[in-house]
Amino acid sequence: MIIYALVEGLTDEAMAHRLALTSGHQVGTCYGKKGSSWIKKNVGAFNKLATSVPVLTLLDFMDADLPCPPEILDKWLPHRHSRMLFRVVVRELESWLLADREGMAGFLGVPLGKIPLAPENLGDPKQTLVNLARQSRYSSIRSALVPQQGSTAQVGRSYVSEIIQFTSETWNPERARESSPSLNSCLHRLAEIK
Fold first, then answer.
1. Which of 10, 52, 61, 104 has the most CB atoms within 10 Å of its CB?
2. pTM of the prediction?
């Protein structure tokens, strides 16, 4: 089935495509890519669109400024259509990526034991990923994902492109769902769409 996606950014777009493919769907058009505020402002219009085509919306919990994921739905989308697949990523996209421990260890070039067992419990999954990249045996990963010394950037200059490539080519959602309840819930919901 063709579904539409509504996401915060480019890495989330790659995630939406990967999740759709894993669930036997395809993403037709991907909207947003302008941050969580844009999603909050426009989610009502996409809820109306969901009456004719399923819409997968991915939102990082960290970006919602609310105490729990169910409250996001209550406040942002109290009358959600059944084909509006509004999924809150706990805590952020990187936690779902880290949940594929084997894939992430290979990608980063670090021992499997360094990858957290419960990535949804991390305070800042993106920072955790960057800190793991600092320990990589691959200089190309350190150069791409870690900000240069003295930089005020949170991530390296090729972070987005490398994460998109990992998500699209290496990341295994079926492995990752075992360590990520919110990802598991998302995949269950996608499997129900007909």
1. 104
2. 0.96
